[in-house]
Sequence to fold (570 residues):
Amino acid sequence: MQNVLVYAGADQGALTKSAREALGAGRRLADALGATLAAVVVAADTDALAQEAIACGADRVYAVANPILSEYQPDLWVAALEAAARAASPDVVLITGDTAGKELAPRLAFRLRAGILTEVSAVAVEGGTVRWTRPVYGGKAMAVYTAKGPVVIGLRARMHDPAAPAEGRRGEVVRVELSVSPELAATRIVEKIQQALGGVRLEDARIIVAGGRGIGGPEGFKDLEALARDLGGAVGASRAACDAGWVSASLQIGQTGATVAPDLYIAIGISGASQHLAGITGAKTVIAINKDPDAPIFKRATLGVVADYKTVLPHLHAELKRILGK
Amino acid sequence: MDPATKRPVQGSAKLVMDSYAEYALEVAIQLKEKHPGSKVVAICVGDKPTDDVLRRAYALTADEAVRVWDPAWADLDSQAVAHILARTIQKLGGADLVLTGREAGDIERGVVGPTLAEELGCACATIVARVEAVEGGTAVVRREVDGGYALVSTRLPAVLTITNDETNVPRLPKVKDLMMAARKPITTLGAADLDLDPARLASPLELVDLYIPVQEGQCEIIEGDDGPAKAAALARRLHELKLV
Ligand SMILES: Cc1cc2nc3c(=O)[nH]c(=O)nc-3n(C[C@H](O)[C@H](O)[C@H](O)COP(=O)(O)OP(=O)(O)OC[C@H]3O[C@@H](n4cnc5c(N)ncnc54)[C@H](O)[C@@H]3O)c2cc1C
Ligand SMILES: Nc1ncnc2c1ncn2[C@@H]1O[C@H](COP(=O)(O)O)[C@@H](O)[C@H]1O
Fold:
């Protein structure tokens, strides 16, 4: 028997999408192992979250409630997760693949003297042993690991089917006491700044027009923006374009940028480095415009145009506008 | 990749500094320029060829370089590296700020930074794009969060894991600094110099398989005499495939 514990992170009173992905992965793992699934929720008031976690597949919820936990502060959250893990004594802790989960997982592993594996994209059980798969070397290879003891698993975002809440599921709620002082929060979030609104959020966009170093400067990105606007989509970029300062770093797509899953991804002047492709594994159709016929992006693309993008983009924009009746 | 050992084969490739560690070094150098009297020490856990990486740090004007290695070490994982780095930093007398990359470019674990903070018992801020200010025992940093960014204040000493930003693109070394770097001494430390816990050096995970996934997909190249012709053909295909 193995105990599986999932950290079910929340935002504004509801479980996050990545929490539901973790619960989905946790439920499937617990079923394959014949184990029970425990979840931990952390908040000032955990009642609704605990019920939501149960609806999403948890058999037991460790609820760490304390007025001090009204807003995410990493040091307090690590303490809360540690308290819950001490109560649950899990063999496996699954942690959501968002930015909070990324910092919580290694710190929790240290405190529990457990191993850690991050960016896990697939979970399989063979003969009672869990095999954890994750991409390595910028997504060029896949590595499969087994754990020799207790392990904290950081899940890769958007790789695990989220749990669909089922009304009427039953579970047990266990309260976990946490005595901490505000002093413990050595690192505090003082201000949260959301990305400029007005456009479509990159992560939600159905169509993305993305540019790379081949765009050549900030002016070129204005043309990409105009096309994206007319298509009802968003603009994205490679790390090279962000580093050049042509666009904000918040537009970066890839392993260390946004993970996107649009229906249509138009990559312009992007070579298609594996770290960039890691962010678009969920894209349905990829179109590449690149002047180098050997650019790796063409291996990922469905349709490709080999040309200097400057000779193509204005006409493409005009043609698409005509087709869309704009 | 060696199919038997499931390890990457270096071949004739040279070792380079980890991509995000280079951004972290750039942040450190900028802080040094802003706060005269501070010192940047580059530390690498690695065998002799890793000296190249530390020479690069010297060329980018780090003040000191320390290489930590022991012949008994092989296949250290990130938790082990963090343990060794923590003991090294303590041995060197500590630091106000410890900067690492957000994740390494080979196996992107993102484990060393946060684990190092736990090992040192100090504050930790991750995925930091900018250090806005360091003053009176606190640092104010700008970090990425889902859907935007946040200003975060963190008590010193602290570990920051650095991500790329237009403000920290690694500079190109000056020719003069490159030449000086070749002559600067690299301090070496081994297991005997550090108060290590052997239990933390053993990996709790076992690599059971490593493979290269097959690339699927066939790309249809749009033909045409010139840009406008290709553009028109692409637009037509996009419309036919109901993609727009
Ligand atoms: C740990 C790690 C994490 C990383 N994370 C990310 C990440 O999240 N996202 C990311 O994007 N990168 C990431 N990178 C960087 C990545 O490896 C590549 O360096 C980067 O994606 C390259 O960007 P690019 O394709 O725009 O530039 P380049 O590789 O320089 O490609 C530019 C392309 O534009 C083409 N081109 C040039 N001029 C024109 C023109 N006029 N018309 C048409 N085509 C033209 C060229 O043929 C070329 O293919 C990461 C790297 C590491 C080590
Ligand atoms: N062997 C090492 N020596 C020094 N620093 C390292 C070493 N391995 C990793 N790091 C640092 O830790 C960061 C994150 O690595 P990782 O947690 O392995 O993804 C890197 O960007 C480096 O700054």
Residues A 212-214, 238-241, 252-257, 269-271, 273, 275-276, 279, 289-292, 295, 308-310; B 19-20, 103, 105, 108 surround flavin-adenine dinucleotide (ligand 1) (CB under 6 Å). The longest strand of chain B covers residues 123-135. Chain B has one domain: 19-201. Chain B has a mean pLDDT of 94.
